[in-house]
Amino acid sequence: MTRLSTSLAVLTFAIATTAQAGGPTAYAQANFFIAKNKLSAVNYRAGTMLPVGAKIEVMKLNENEVKCKILDTGVEFEFESHKSLGKTARDLFKGFFSETDPMPKLEAFPKEFQGPIKAGEIAVGMSREMVLMSMGPPPPHKTVSLEASKWIYWQSKMAQIEVNFVDGKVESFGPLGKAEKKPFLGGIFEKKEEPKEMMFAKSNLHHDEGTVSWVNYQNGPIIPFNSKIEIVSKGSDSVKFKIVNEDKTFVFENDKRSGKDVWSLFQQVFAADDQAGALAKLSADDKKMVSAAEVQVGMSREAVRMAWGPPPPHMTPSFDSTTWTYWKTKMAKVAVTFKNDKVAEIK
User: Which of 156, 237, 238, 244 has the alpha carbon at shortest distance from 197?
Assistant: First the structure.
């Protein structure tokens, strides 16, 4: 077995077919790119970079489906194969992630190559092992052997990159057919960040130590109406987000009791459009109540929804209901009754 093959064998990730509770963890063995919450085994070189050494949790693993979560950020992604590769996602996953932390090996490489590797780039003179750590494995349908003198990567679905080796070292690299012999072509690989998804709070929202419940409890610190937020990640039962220009991450949580998926509930409290116009349509008194996160007799339905948010659907199945039932706490409820679309009673 060659030295390179031996190194690649170290990448094999010994993991059960079904992930245990909590999920096993692994390290990214190279810089990979995630686009639309997917990491393709074709190893496209565009999207949001997952850096070498990043630690992940394997949430689900079977023949054709691998779901993971980046531990530092909570961002979830799916590792997927492609029919052109001729292998399952589970088999290919072993060449991308391992239980071995690659950083000690990276730090043992000559210093002039460490920067390009961390940037997900290439430099003339790099060994195959260094390129493998910087770029990850080239897709096997284009590079049948890691001992080949030319490795071909996909920049995107329309563009390819070639890396040429002489005596086991990078001799040239660049767009397919246009390889160059330069020490370091910084920026050859297009690292476009995915556009950040921004939304606006459609109501005041209470949270408990950073957790916003689908039940919409009416106590605790407030995220103000029309706060601009950035979506951090979307999971099967939660959505993580940040208020723009603030560091704190919040979690919007759902569970089976709601009877709805988490994203549909999230869209009831956040919208893609700025909500200042909606607030401007309210009466002066209603605006004051929304700003104070309070509800009083005479308020319109729209104002109540902005002040307290939507009532939980398991107690109020429709916004046209005569009575909206909120939970002040897990033990206490409050009912808001409407007449002619105005608050008639609060009890």
Answer: 244
What's this model's pTM, rounded to 2 decimal places?
Answer: 0.56
Cβ contacts of 69-72, under 8 Å, gap ≥ 24: 69/23, 69/235, 71/25
DSSP string over 108-173: HS-HHHHHHHHTT--BTT-BHHHHHHHH-PPPTTT---TTSSEEEEESSSS-EEEEEEETTEEEEE
CA–CA dist 189, 75 (Å, integer): 23
Does residue 274 register a pLDDT over 50? yes
The predicted model gives 89-108 an average pLDDT of 93
306: its two tokens: 């902005």
User: Around Cβ 43, how many Cβ atoms within 10 Å?
Assistant: 20
Domain locations in the chain as residue ranges: 3-175, 198-346
Beta bridge partners of 234: 239
β-pair partners for 165: 170
Backbone angles phi, psi at 160, to 5 degrees: -120, 155
Classify 29 in phi/psi space as left (phi over 0), alpha (psi -120 to 50) or beta.
alpha
Q: Do residues 203 and 191 make contact, with C-beta atoms less than 8 angstroms apart?
A: no
- The predicted pLDDT at position 5 comes to 43
Whole-angstrom Cα distance, residue 302 to residue 159?
A: 51
Alpha carbon 293 to its chain's center: 31
Q: Where are the alpha helices (DSSP H) in 222-261?
A: none
CA pair distance 70, 287, nearest whole angstrom: 41
Mind listing the pLDDT tens digit for each residue in 40-80? 999 998 888 999 999 999 998 887 789 999 998 888 999 99
Contact 97, 67 (CB under 8 A): no
Amino acid 265: pLDDT: 93
Exposed, middle or buried by CB within 10 Å (0-12, 13-18, 19+), for 248?
A: exposed
Of residues 165, 164, 196, 161, the one with CA closest to residue 176: 161
Q: Which residue has the higher pLDDT, 31 or 247?
A: 31
